[in-house]
Amino acid sequence: MGKADNIIRLLLVEESVEDAEHVISVIRNSGMAVRPSRATDGEEVSSLLAEQGVDLVLVSPNLQSSKLKVVVEAIDKSGKDIVPLQLLDSLSADNLADALRQGARDVIPRALPDILQMIVKREFENLQARRGLRRLEASLRESERRCHSLLDSSRDPIAYVHDGMHVYANRAYLEIFGFEDFEEIEGTPMLEFIGPKHADEMKTVLRQISKGEKPPERMSVQARTPEGTTFDAALELSEASIEGESCTQIVFRQQTVDAKVAEQLDTLKRQDLVTGLANRQHFLSEMEKAVSSAISGKIDQALLYVELDGYRRTLDSIGVGSADLLLADVASCLGEQVAEQDLVARFSDHTFTVLANNRSHAECATFGEKIAKAIDSKIFEVGQQSVSMTASVGVCLLTEKISRVQDVLERAAESARSASEEGGNRVVVFDPSAKEKAQAEKDQHWLSLIKDALNKDGFVLFYQPMISLQGAEGEYYEILLRM
Prior knowledge:
CATH architecture of the largest domain: 2-Layer Sandwich
Shape: extended
Strand order of the largest sheet: 2-1-3-4-5
Helix content: 40-55%
CATH class of the largest domain: Alpha Beta
Number of helices: 14
Number of domains: 4
CATH superfamily of the largest domain: Reverse transcriptase/Diguanylate cyclase domain
Number of strands: 19
């Protein structure tokens, strides 16, 4: 977000210039940047709304109560997302209800500057969030349009299925089953294109999907055309949405290789060859799904970032050639600690990650301690040597406020570094409020220093002459205010 986006374009509906300046001063004293303008009646408000951008409108308490209604009507006619706020000299149940009834988003007592600052900040942040949401929705619509275009031109037969019925099929899908137009199969059950040999299996999968369960990534079936011709196909199923409706994307691939060979190749794509765990690429793919489900309200997931302590020193002791043996043993130890619903991966050289599922937030911290203790208590046999290892574990809970996988990884890694700096062989759970508390303490510290300097004349002006390299005429000085 650019600096210009953080400037509040404030319109004050106020007859008194002095009162308007006082309100602006109160808002600026909280550290918010304001670009003010002033109007005295409904006509000026309409004119300013048409001519320039406005974020918030503050209506003076000195104006007649009908003026607020006029201002709200002007905002509605402009069609812009602008927040009307009513200032009041005194707050009572009657004037509060009257202001809200006429369309004010909130009511602010003029005598309480702190309340004014907090409400203005809150409403501006809400406005920015709404604008950001609209931009994202526009980007989503454009992305969906492009995806639709790519689907139509794809050589892979692709169909979207909702409640077992076709809601979309691309040209390649229509051709493979001998149709000219999607309207011929729209609303047709998916089971009609599955041979009798696998009909029950497909019916079970579709029933599970309708209950909200995840579809299997792959399944082999015997597909059937309307003429009764059958062919072996590998289906790739994934969760998707079309026009806002959740559905299942199914990619039909005609079998050209043995099903077992195809399954082995698919496994190799997702597996780290040294440890047998999931590789980084597959783990990140699963993390994307986990973050998406967290945004949707799922609350029982966490990322554990496991980093081996003193790995470089251990490597010097056992030799680089034995590194793979050690990592494979550590991976085996980790595999013994995780449950079936968890996903453990080798994320980088000596870093492992675990996506914990179906565990409460309290259980995730205990789970991290269990992993650290398991590594600490195990003796790893590497060739002719016995090696002891410890690990620093960082835990980051997946919540709806975290919208990017990168943010989750950075927070978990930061927690693991904190654990390592504290001596290693321990678990640190990321505290979302810790950074905010630290920043608040830092701000308060500087605020105290500035206030103290103001009270004790601790500011000094310095003048420094400046010379123009382009030969501009006149004298120039840089003025510095130092504390």
